[in-house]
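Table S2 (text version). Query chain:
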Amino acid sequence: MSRESVFEGLKEIFAGVKPKLDLSQVTMESKLVNDLGIDSLSMLLLSLAAEHKFQMQFASDTAPFETVGEVCDYIVAAVQA
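Corresponding structure-token output:
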């Protein structure tokens, strides 16, 4: 699975979790909290949706993600493992 396909899938998830978010402003460099306004509840919903969509699981000891690109890289690595 490519980083770009994961990115597009994450944008679909963002649309469900944060319906008012302007998806055209979401980039790999977007900061989840500062740029996109992702709070703890949104992060939980985002992670559950990503696990379901990409058929993977986030490890409980994973360091917090700062950018969309970090989430994409983690998902790509998890799917390929």
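Notes on Table S2: The CA atoms of residues 6 and 33 lie 19 Å apart. The helical segments are 3-17, 40-54, 68-80.
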